[in-house]
UniProtKB/TrEMBL annotation:
Gene3D superfamilies: Dihydrodipicolinate Reductase, domain 2 (3.30.360.10), NAD(P)-binding Rossmann-like Domain (3.40.50.720). Keywords: Oxidoreductase. Belongs to the Gfo/Idh/MocA family. InterPro entries: Gfo/Idh/MocA-like_OxRdtase_N, Gfo/Idh/MocA_domain, GFO_IDH_MocA-like_dom, NAD(P)-bd_dom_sf. This is Oxidoreductase. One of its GO terms (molecular function) is oxidoreductase activity. Coiled coil: none annotated. It holds the Pfam family GFO_IDH_MocA. Residues 4-122 form the Gfo/Idh/MocA-like oxidoreductase N-terminal domain. Residues 132-245 form the GFO/IDH/MocA-like oxidoreductase domain.
Length: 328
């Protein structure tokens, strides 16, 4: 079977680990990169060994490209994902897929009309530790999930960074808070029935935000995200019969022996086990899953990811709306 030929729409920093993951894949390869700045595209291509440096329009028109990876600011995801779909390209779009539920539905409708696959990029969801955590929860190893607490953040010191620009879809929630939101949605398997949120605002964007999500199952999830503190990507899933602790957010596992914590039973004094998982590159796994969706060998996961992405878009939109009301 021939490899899936991927073109990068955008030469952002996130494209570098994506290329590294693609090089580990037996199912895909990066064959082109596009930028609004031709010199930047060429420099990026030369640095990373990508054969072709193109404009956006050239990349979408190229018959030698099967799929596009969207690595652009959040506000541009919908436009270029739909443009790529209409050009007959499968689309792997960086998170967050959309800025609203309506936008996400429109994007999937465009992909359906063109007969192509659209996937939102969350590499950690494909990694062994996430899959094993899901398996343990579904097997009842920690009982009924009572609470989920997840964080993600870092200190963003550059005042001119586009992630602080409200017109570019900036803000802590959309940039880093989408990670805990996606994890919570993955574990809960549904959108929440009640959302509350509060935020510290700076220049029209949320710089620090906290939210509580309540689910019909009875699970209560809390998340926090920030551009003003170095919140590590951690999650604690507490059930009636045990607790799981994990650094869920790694795309590329840096540890030589990755693992997560599991404490069985309701007695907090019981020791925490370390559950070892295989060391895998999240981008490689995501790219392989994307290729499987395209060749039709994993339609179930394609449908599940689509439903999750629409729910995530609604959750993000709702959290921001609640946070604005709370701050008014």
């Amino acid at each position: 079977m021939s490899k899936l030929r991927i073109g990068l729409l955008g030469a952002a920093r996130i494209a570098t680990p994506f290329i590294a993951g693609a090089k580990l894949s037996s199912r895909a390869e990066v064959v082109a990169v596009a930028s609004r700045d031709p010199a930047r595209a060429k420099a990026f291509a030369d640095t990373h060994g990508v054969p072709h440096a193109l404009t956006y329009e050239q990349l979408l028109a190229a018959k030698e490209i099967d799929a596009v990876y969207i690595a652009l600011p959040n506000s541009l995801h919908a436009h270029w994902s739909m443009a790529a779909a209409r050009a007959g390209k499968h689309v792997l779009c960086e998170k967050p897929l959309a800025l609203s539920e309506a936008e996400a539905i429109e994007m999937f409708s465009a992909a359906d009309a063109a007969g192509v696959v659209l996937l939102e990029g969350y590499p950690f969801l494909f990694q062994p530790q996430t899959l094993e955590i899901e398996r343990l929860i579904q097997a009842g190893e920690i009982g009924r999930v009572q609470t989920i607490f997840a964080t993600c953040g870092f200190t963003l010191s550059n005042p001119d960074d586009f992630r602080l620009d409200p017109t570019m879809g900036g803000g802590a929630l959309l940039d880093v808070g989408c990670y805990p939101v996606s994890l919570i949605r993955q574990l809960a398997g549904a959108r929440p029935t009640r959302v509350t949120a509060t935020a510290q605002w700076h220049g029209g964007v949320d710089r620090t935000l906290a939210a509580t999500l309540e689910f019909a199952s009875g699970t209560i999830a809390q998340l926090s995200c920030s551009f003003a503190s170095g919140l590590v990507r951690t999650a604690v899933i507490a059930g009636s019969e045990g607790i799981i602790e994990t650094d869920y957010g790694n795309h590329t596992i840096r540890s030589a022996a990755p693992s997560f914590g599991l404490r069985r039973g309701s007695d907090w004094r019981r020791p925490t086990e370390r559950i070892a998982v295989p060391r895998e590159d999240g981008f490689r796994l995501e790219i392989d899953a994307f290729a499987a969706m395209i060749d039709g060998s994993d339609r179930d996961q394609q449908a599940a990811r689509r439903a999750a992405s629409i729910d995530i878009a609604w959750i993000l939109e709702t959290i921001l709306a609640r946070a604005r009301v709370a701050s008014s």
